[in-house]
Structures are given as structure tokens and as C-alpha cells.
Amino acid sequence: MTQNTEIVNTQQLSFEDFKNEVLNDYRIARISRECSLLGRREVLTGKAKFGIFGDGKEIPQLAMAKAFQNGDFRSGYYRDQTFMMAIGELTPQQFFAGLYAHTDIDVEPMSAGRQMGGHFATHSLDENGNWKNLTAQKNSSSDISPTAGQMPRLLGLAQASKIYRNVEGLENHTNFSINGNEVAWGTIGNASTSEGLFFETINAAGVLQVPMIMNVWDDEYGISVHARHQTTKESISEILKGFQRENESNGYEIFVVNGWDYVQLIDTYNKASQIAREQHIPILIHVKELTQPQGHSTSGSHERYKSKERLQWEQEFDCIAQMRKWILEFELENEDGETLRFIDSEEDLINIEKEAKKEVSKAKRDAWSAYTNEIKAEVAEAISLLETIAQKSNNGSFITKYKNDLAAIAEPIRKDILVAARKTLRYLRDEDFAEKTALKNFIKASTDKAAVKYSAHLLSETELATENIAAEAPTYASEKNIVDARIIMRDNFDAILAKHPEVLIFGEDAGYIGDVNQGLEGLQEKFGELRVSDTGIREATILGQGIGMAMRGLRPIAEIQYLDYLLYALQIMSDDLATLRYRTFGKQKAPLIIRTRGHRLEGIWHSGSPMGGIINNVRGIHVLVPRNMTKAAGFYNTLLEGDDPALVVECLNGYRLKEELPTNLGDFKTPIGVVETIKEGNDITIVSYGSTLRIVEEAAKDLAQVGIDVEIVDAQSLLPFDLNHDTVKSVAKTNRLLVVDEDVPGGASAYLLQEIVENQNGYKHLDSKPQTLTAKAHRPAYGTDGDYFSKPSAEDIFEKVYEIMNEANPAKFKSLY
């Protein structure tokens, strides 16, 4: 078989080099396949919890790896193990360490056991949390399981190259880009292209014209569901033909190639890489006729839903089998008339296959030993301690049983150790000897270690953690300069853009008109369309742009026009951005700032304040709720000095209110996680945030007229809330607490109540029941009356506080009703 052999020789390889490369590719493919086969067995025997593997996709991933260069980024899904092996970022032992959930990041570098196997990442940060030189390595953004969830981030990874190539002032950012020559490579299964996130990203990349190569691995099924139920015409490339660029119009290059054709795959990927890299044109590569030899995952068997004919076809057209056949049949006559072959006989391939089996089998054993030996050492320590305790305790027989049960577990986990230790401690509650203290210390040490292994790195633990950024107060001119509050926002963004060339602001209406509230007025004209830009109405990929660019050293500010619209992007915020640092054990970060506005809006669709839903879905992102534009501007300044992602919710009804213009724009900083007492009082503490504070202040004036002195605390920051525990100091003074919130009952108000009463031990100081005052359970009806009767009003607040004081002193505060 000699067809098209000249294609793979485009880099002027000698035949000997070419042969070695082909045989090495075959070796990698066999190693990857053996990992899949043995990995499934490990799950089915109980050593691993779940397995999802890349078998059947090996050959196109080898071709992709050949075109993948230093500085490039992958944003893929859980089938790409061969690719990761081919670029040198995954060994078979690391593959099994991931399967076993080994918690050592040096042993399992993808996630330190936090993600199931098949979720891949490289390290963008060093041991101190500082950026590495991303242009000197091949990069993989950390995978997530939600199907198509990798797509929005892919868009931003690609857009970063466009920014680095075209924006002045970034020439020195050489750790992140070399003149924008990097390509972002996406991978997805054919069935997952049915997701809206796929189509939204494809459209956005076509509009933006960024160097993105989207690879669709097509094996005709989505778990058990055939492509005819997934995709119109059963072909993603067919239905996306309208995206094909023509003449000078923007659009895509679209390639379709069979996944078992090694030669054509390499040709296709070389072409695609060159076009995307040089011209910044997005590309779709539809890789067809792939197989999935073991079915979707270890949860089921594909024999249940595939016909005998399909199974027979898959066996014949397995991509490795086809490559093997091509190697065996390959012959090429050189200029001297000699016949060149890759191998002398089939025995050469058999030897490669045997060696692959041996290598993978050894890697599996070594990974298992490394994983279990660490735990067994902890088991031995626990057993020794329990044995000594059993000899001294009056309940020794019970403790001996725990010890023996632990020792009998053939493959123990850390849970087994702590269960035995903690149950033993119950039997020692009436006893006191040195070994009991040793047991308590053992439990505490084990729990502390577990906190690092399983809970560390939700947010930055470096010097750049935003809570470490010192506050800096606004300064003002000797003569007051009172302006519309939007001017403060606009001029502060002006200062930010001038100070930080890596900052970009983008969103719906953010560019040409300077956002709907004129907080960016004139800034696109001043800084250019790439730095202050409009986007389509597509919130999920606006977030994705921000995530991807932030992962490549830029400092994007992604605008979501209104708080309600954030729900379109909440899945991306929750599953991707909020978990990124955590799921990589602190080895990747995306310090994206999300800007939106809300509170006190009118009507069902523009009035939501779903803060409870947001804060409970985005742990790992700061949620900041400034009461005015000066506070908001200070938050942006603070965030840009740190490296945590954040959501800033500006007060929509505050842009036209008057505030004094600071003189240190771009420099003053609002501290994160710090509350502010904006009115002192003695009778009751009211905690609120955002626009509702103005209503609380109005009610406080009315309450003062009847002899009730209210202390008002502005939360300012919901995640984190009150790191200094200042709120409880207020409660200790007033002995009463009311949380006022325009979210639904049980939303952010319940969260704040738990923080104050439980976490800050505020209950100790209460003389009255702590209460909340929230909006109704529904969204408001349209109009001012809809707002008045749905959300807390000044009258509601007055009467709620008066009712609390009536209970405390009914003689002084006689019942109103």
C-alpha cells in the first residue's frame, strides 16, 4: 500500500526517521489501548470506582499530537488519553494513578485524584502559584465531565492568540504567547455536538475568527443512542456546511476524514494547523468511522445496543487494526530501486504489542503499589495504636474488634482508618491515659491531612489571594466633585485600561455605546475594539471567552448585561470556572472578573436577585455586592491585583445617583470579605447589601422617630462573608438581628443567617429570635406596585423591626396591629 505516502514526508524526514516515527506511533497506540483494556478490568474488579476510556480514538489523536506545538492549548473531553501520551504529558503509571484516585499531585498530576480518570490537565502554575512559561510547553486546560462544557473555554483560549497578536502593549508577555501563533484545539464526541454550548461556541468562533481547531470524534453513538437521534442528517459536518468560508467572507475551513486512515489524518492535521496558526481561521475536523471497542464506559456493554453487523464492522475498522494492516502492507521503492518497508515481518509488530502489554501491566502494578503502600503505612500506624489502647482500656474487647476488622481489609482506604479510630474514641470517653491523647492527635492529624488532600485550593492560597490585598481608601479633592455615579465607573475603567494592557472588557453593548448604563462610555474609541468590545447575545460563551483568556495570562472582564441573564452562564461558572483551581490542585487558574448589574428591577424577567442560587453554585468564585459605584470600582481595582475569579453585581438603580468622584482612580481598593457598618445603633443589627441598603436606611430614619436605634451593616461581599467576624460584634452590642434581602425566602438571607448565628456564634448574644425579611417566593409582577408588594419595602422593614422590639418591650412599643 503506497498511496499518499509523500504526505507524511512533508518535514523532509529520511525514510529511517519516518519508519521509526510510524512504529513509535503504533507503540503509543498499543500502550494506550492496553491501558483502556486493563483499566476496565481494574474497575470491574473493584480497585477503581469508574472508568471511561479512549479506546477506538487512538490514531486521530496521534495525528493531532503531531500538529500540536508548544504554547498550544487543548480543551477536550475524557477520551483523549492517547493524545496526552503522545505529547508526553501522560504516562501509563499516571493513567492508573488517576484511575485509583491517588491524592499526590506529583504522582497523579492531572488532579491529585479529585477527578475521575480520563480528565486531563497540564500545570500552568509552579509550586508557588506563579505562571510558568506556557510557550515552552504543551498545554491542556483541565477537563470537566459535563458534555460540551469544554467548548466555551476553548473559544477564550483561541481568542487569547488573537489578542496577543493584535493588541499593543503585550509584547513583553512572552510567557503566554509568541506573536499569537498558538492554536486552541478542542475535542468532543459526535453526540455531544447536540448540546447548545457546542453550537454557541462554533458560531462565536466564526464571528471572532480565532485560531481554533474543533475535532469531532464520531463513532456514531452517544452512549446507546445512534446518531440518527442526535444530529440532523446524522453528520455534524453536513449541517455546518453553511459555516464554510467562501471568497473573502468569514467562516470555517471544514475537513472530513476517516479516523482509521493514518496517512490522511496526518495530512489533514498538518493542513489544519498551518491554516489556523498563520491565518487565525477556525477549523472543524470531523473524524468519522471511529469505534468504541468497550462501549461508552464501565457502566454498561455496547453489545446491548449494537447489531452484530456493526460490531463486526467495528472489529475490522478498528483504527489500530487498520494502522497495523497498513504497516504490514507498506512498500515504497526508492530512487535506487530498493523496496523499503517498515518491518521485516509481522513478528516485529507482535514484539511491539507484547512489550506494550508488559509496560502497561507493570505501570498498573507500580501505580497500585504506590497508591496502597501509602495507605497501608497509615493502617499499620492505626493498628499499632489501637492494639496498645485495647490493652489498657476497660472496653478492650470492642476496640480489638475494630483493630482486627481494619487489619482484615485487603485493600483499605483512608475512610476505613478513620472509622475505626473515631469509633474507638467513643469507648474511651470515661477513660484517660496517654494513648487516648495519642489517638486524638492521630485523628486530628489524619483529618488535617485529608483537608489538604481533598479540600485545599478552592481559592488562591498564594500571596495573590484577594483577601491579602490591602484596602486603600478613595481620596478626594479639597473641593467636592459630585457626579453621576456612572462617571466614577467609567473613569475608573479608563484608569484600569491605561494601567493594565492585559485587561479586556467585553459583553453585550459593552463596546460601541459604552454599555447600556454608559459605564464604558467612549472607552472603545480610546482603547480599540479588541480591548473594549461588543459580543453577540450568548452569555455562556462570553463567560467562556473570559475563562480561556484568563487561563492564558490576560485579565478579562466579561460583562453579563443583567443579573437574570447570568443563569444562561451559571453552568459554566459552576462546573468550569469555580472548580478550576480546585480540580487541578492549584495548578491552573483563571482570574476572570464577571461584571453584571441587578437588584430592584421590575418585572418577572428583569427583576430576579437569585443570589442564594448563585452563591451556592459558584463556591470558588468571589461574589461581591457593592452598594454604590465607588465601592464597585474599588472591587475591580482589588481584584486586578489578586488572582481569584469574581462576580461583581453593580446596583442597576445607582448609576444616576450622585457620588463624589475620587482622585485616585484605578488605585483605591475595596477590601474583599470585609463588612462595613454604615450606621451605628444600639437596639438591633440589620444586615443587608446592594440596593436594599438604601431602603434599610430610609426605614432606619422612620424607626428613629419612634425610639428604635438601628445599626446597619453592609455585607459588601457574600463570598467570602465577613472574614474578620465584625458582624457578631454588632450583634453582641444590640442583641438582636435582622437580615434583609430581596432574594427569595431561604436564599442569600438564610446563608447570611447561618454565617452570623452559627459560624460567628452570634446566637450567644441574642435576646430575640434572629429573623429574615425577604422577597416573596415568586418573581415580582411588572411595575412599581409589583416591586412594592413582592420585595421588602421601607414599611416592611419598619414593621418587622417594630414587631421584634414589641416582643422585647411591649409596654414601650405597643402593637401596631
Automatic annotation (TrEMBL):
GO molecular function: branched-chain 2-oxo acid dehydrogenase activity
Enzyme class: oxidoreductase
Record domain Transketolase-like pyrimidine-binding: where: 483-657
One Pfam family, short name: Transketolase_C
SMART domains listed in its UniProt record: Transket_pyr
Matching InterPro entries: DH_E1, THDP-binding, Transketo_C/PFOR_II, Transketolase-like_Pyr-bd, Transketolase_C
Protein's recorded name: 3-methyl-2-oxobutanoate dehydrogenase (2-methylpropanoyl-transferring)
